[in-house]
Amino acid sequence: MSISDTLIVQEVATRDGFQIEPVFVPTPEKIRLIDALAEAGFSRIEVSSFVSPKAVPALSDAAEVFAGIRRRRGTVFVALVPNPKGAERALAAKVGEINLVASVSETHNRANMGMSPDASIEGFARIMETVAGSGVGVNATAATAFGCPFEGDEPEDKVVAQVERYLALGVDGVTLADTTGMANPRQVARLVARVLPLVGAERLTLHFHNTRGLGLANVLAAFETGARRFDAALGGLGGCPFAPGATGNICTEDLVSMAHEMGLTTGLDLEALLGLSRDLPRLVGHDVPGQVAKAGRPCDLHPAPPLKAA
């Protein structure tokens, strides 16, 4: 199939999903899940985060996880990095790519990162110096690109300006993140249409949350505008601890099922994903939002009920 028939899904459950879980998922379980996700065909998996263990205790084992996973050819293993020290730890762990995050929203970035967006981006320049020459890729995320729970709508010009600053730093890719699930399809189409010419479809990722039930509709709006890369989390895990009311990411297996029903290719083993999703409640201690794992695929038919006697 051509690129026009391809929808690329990038898995973020073991970072964005596990980071807010109150139960610590044991390191061997994380490794087992990441290995299984790689075998299911993902080209990118956001494995963990090299942040302070005090800030995100659920991911305090990032180095151990990276040391334990199998490095599958064709899969890039990603870590979120907040500062040069985190970048040094990520390089030591032999990550394939680091992800930098700054919010478009001043208020959200101060709540999330403890500094202004300008200060965050200035810090990214030092991280780029740390990573230079290592062969490790760098992606930069514009969080709250579609709205902030504290400030409301963010002007599109402000989002585009942040993307341009990222590109000026020399990053390899850019993500537009709907951190709090405030986006709607028409808004998504407008912003993607402005950013795509700057970044290109191969380097642009969309990161949607399903807080208000519009996650897959927003994917479709972005896809039809020309975007091809999307983050998702197995089972619909995740959420932002600094965004009131924010729920999980769009669900990986639900997105893959939709894409396959539309005749698109993802390169992913949906049956394997469904099996992994159905095991998530055991790991996190609660039900997860994913729907296809509960209802089955549309092609999973059931026996007809017995006919009633006349």
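the 2nd protein, sequnce then structure:
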Amino acid sequence: MQHSELKNLKIAVVGAGYGGAAAAKALSLLGAQVDVYEQAHQIREVGAGIGLRPATMNRFRQWGVFEAIAGVTSPSEYFEILTATGEPIMKEAWPADGAQRHTHLIHRGDFIEALLGVLPAGMVHLGHRLEGVRDHGERSVLTFANGKTVEADLVVGADGIKSVVRQELFSDKGPVFSGEHAYRAVISVDDAHGMVTDDNLRMYIGRGTKVYLLPLRHRGQVSFDITALCPDGAWSPEVSRDDVLATVEGFDERLIAITRGLDMASVNVRAVYDIDPVETWHSDSVVLVGDAAHSMLHHQGQGANSAIEDAGALADALREADSVREALARYQAVRKPETDKLQAISRQGWSEEEIEDVFPGQKPADAAPKG
């Protein structure tokens, strides 16, 4: 689209999470008028650490915000997968993107704060819970619970796994329970029993449980995450310390000691959900990004990265296409095949036997199952 057309484009982004904030930044750089509507009255990201891949960091470099993000991260050279008792299964450098070879490990709260911090003042409007969206062709109309109505040339639905935009226009299928719980905490490096000595992600797997140690050494902390099988699909289940300890039975004694020492009041406990692939992500003037389009399980660590890639691809498509409608079709054609694959592979359980399927050719021969 011509610069004059983009400059006159009014865009409403629903949701101020990773996908919404990234989309707002990328689209505002086109010259468009962008407003972000967030249902929360205060943005507070709970949980733990994530890894921003090289391709994601290159998007931030493209948008001129690399230093703002990198300044609150620990650069990581590789990730490692081990058995429950610490025997190596695979070790792999992060997939490089051009000259960028490090994945940057970051606390979720620092990440969303940094993303929102690079948006122009007044762009984000809190306390706007979306109730409905209607696509009238060249324009769409949003209605909010506070009584406000907004018209826009383009609506970007970045409202997460329970997306109202998706439910209203694209799919009425609800989230899908994975049969797993995630227990997440951020602890001091000093409480990691000597298991964190560098900036590289390690995952220990066994008996249906995955334990992640994600260093946040720039904070003097480590993100300690346990994902374990559990049939309770309540979004915020109640669990005891003994329940969590039972999931790491037979693991390295140091991991058990970390688990035993957790302050349960500070552990984020969630049932793990994703969604089935959505057939169509866009109408004439409404489009989905991030978890609203393709919420996936966290086993590949690609949820936030995919949202950032969506934002970049959407901005690219608007710049290159002749119309909004053409841009949305182009964006979906670029991103949906990738996220369909990631959704599918993220649903794999990552038992030791499944590593070969998830990372073909990476499992050492001497660690292959005996036949």
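The chain is about 30% helix and 25% strand. Residues 364-371 have pLDDT under 50 and may be disordered.
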